[in-house]
Amino acid sequence: MSLCNAFPTLFDLVDESPTMEMDGVERQDYWKVVDQCYLCDLCYQTKCPYIPPHEWNIDFPHLMLRAKAVKFRQGRTTASEKILSSTDAVGKLAGIPVVVNAVNAANRNGSVRKAMDRLLGVHPDAAIPEYHSDTLRRRMKKRAEEATEGRSAGRTTGKVALFATCYANYSAPDLGEDLIKVLEHNGIAVTLAEKERCCGMPKLELGDLESVERAKDANIPVLKRMVDQGWDIMAPVPSCILMFRQELPLMFPDDDDVATVAQHIFDPFEYLILRHREGCLKTDFPNSLGKVAYHVACHQRVQKIGQKTKECLELVPGTEVMAIERCSGHDGTYGVKTRHYDNAKKIARPVANRVRQFEPAHHGSDCPMAGRFIAHVMGDETPTRHPISMIRQAYGI
After folding, report:
1. What mean pLDDT comes out for the span 360-379?
2. Minimal CA–CA distance to 138: which of 105, 100, 182, 83?
3. At CA 163, angle to CA 99 and CA 325, rounded to 5?
4. pLDDT value at residue 149
5. Helix/strand/coil (H, E, C) string of the chain?
6. Is the Cβ–Cβ distance between 14 and 20 less than 8 Å?
7. What are the boundaries of each domain within the chain?
8. pLDDT of the residue at 145
9. What crossing angle do the helices spanning 87-94 and 97-107 adopt, rounded to 10°?
10. Is the pLDDT of residue 142 over 80?
11. How far apart are CA 312 and CA 61, in angstroms?
């Protein structure tokens, strides 16, 4: 009940049925439940009583995913949903130098936002990202890589090939630069994967499994080649890591290359803490961060790596971290859609209230979209910052 609106919708349908049981719920109303699931996976991982060893063995998020795939295959997915899930294509178009300023200005224009509501179903008040023509990939081409050979430590090679992701490349290149600076400050060699497509998570959430397979066919050979050359893979957005670690191995269980990439892709703070335990992380932080309200992203929680971000932030002297393990309500495109916007804000409000009550010097999430949405629900009282950007500040680099 505290995770999303799928189960409240289901229980309301049962309560309002003539029998007050599932047999009284019209089958066409099942889609109302499916529409509220945004595949955070937390019910399956943390709440559901019907997982093994229970004989029913229900994986609720993937049951909903199969329903979404049926809906997509039957041609009942709207054109607007297909556009919103095409993050790579939208980012490339919006990031063209002569286009980007017009796109960002339009996204701040009330009349344009009302038109977007009519045409795309994007709420006029929803927080949507800006786009950059000076993408992370362009910035990386302008710089010389500082380290060429990394020092291995435990499971890590000390060489990271960054899977930039659509968001970090087109909407948050500063985040990508902060991550690179922190890695290189710790003697870790960094490069970008030679090319990349969207990880496929937005298309997966839509049920467009054929597009997911095309993205896999484009990305996996590139990343596998990097692994073979001794590079670890890293992405700054938890959903992308989860895609390679969990969803693609579930869809393609017999693909050895998928399995290899899954074993060699890391969350940034997981990587830093693994190296810290081998004595390979610099902890001479000259700057305190004070009080930090840290939202633990859902797609990071289900990876079962523990609170490595919190552990790393607490290495900074004079820093107090409050971790918030509750959904932000944004969840891919859910939080921007008009039909879900009010529910998304309702889901996020307890998180926003905890941030306010803590009165932090900084607040943010491993998921930059979640952090931005929490700030939006708070009325943008204080800007959100990604934890890796906080670590860069603590290092003073």
Report:
1. 95
2. 100
3. 100
4. 72
5. CCCCCHHHHHHHHHHHCCCCCHHHCCHHHHHHHHCCCCCCCHHHHHHCCCCCCCCCCCCHHHHHHHHHHHHHHCCCCCHHHHHHCCHHHHHHHHCCHHHHHHHHHHHCCHHHHHHHHHHHCECCCCCCCCCCCCCHHHHHHCCCCCCCCCCCECCECCEEEECCHHHHHHHCHHHHHHHHHHHHHCCCEEEECCCCCCCCHHHHHHCCHHHHHHHHHHHHHHHHHHHHCCCEEECCCHHHHHHHHHHHHHHCCCCHHHHHHHHCEECHHHHHHHHHCCCCCCCCCCCCCEEEEEECCHHHHCCCCCCHHHHHHCCCCCEEEEEECCCCCCCCCHHHECCCHHHHHHHHHHHHHHHHHHCCCEEEECCHHHHHHHHHHCCCCCCCCCHHHHHHHHHCC
6. yes
7. 6-73, 79-120, 136-273, 281-395
8. 55
9. 110
10. no
11. 31
Length of the chain equals 397
Question: Can you give the pLDDT at residue 127?
Answer: 87
Sign for the CA dihedral angle at 217, 220, 223, 225 comes to negative
Rounded to whole angstroms, how far apart are CA atoms 155 and 4? 35
Widest distance between CA atoms in the chain: 69
> Residue 293's beta-bridge partner residues?
322, 363
The CA distance from 228 to 109, in Å, is: 48
Buried b (16+ CB within 10 A) or exposed e, 260-298: ebbebbbbbbbbbbbbbeeebbeeebeeebebbbbbbbb
**Which residues are CB-neighbours of 54 under 8 A, at least 6 positions away?**
none
**Selection from 74-83, 149-158, 268-277 with the highest mean pLDDT:** 268-277
Pairing of strands 232-234, 362-365: unpaired
Instruction: Give the Cβ contact number of residue 15 at 10 Å.
Output: 10
Residue 384: which residues within 8 A CB-CB, separation 6 or more?
363, 364, 365, 368, 371, 372, 374, 375
CB atoms within 10 A of CB 113: 17
State which CATH number among 3.10.620, 3.40.50, 3.90.1530, 3.90.660 fits the domain covering 281-395: 3.40.50
Instruction: Give the span between the Cα atoms of 74 and 298, in whole angstroms.
Output: 30
Q: What angle do CA 300, 247, 167 make, to 5 degrees?
A: 55
pLDDT of residue 189: 94
Of residues 390 and 147, more confidently modeled: 390
Is pLDDT above 60 for 146?
no
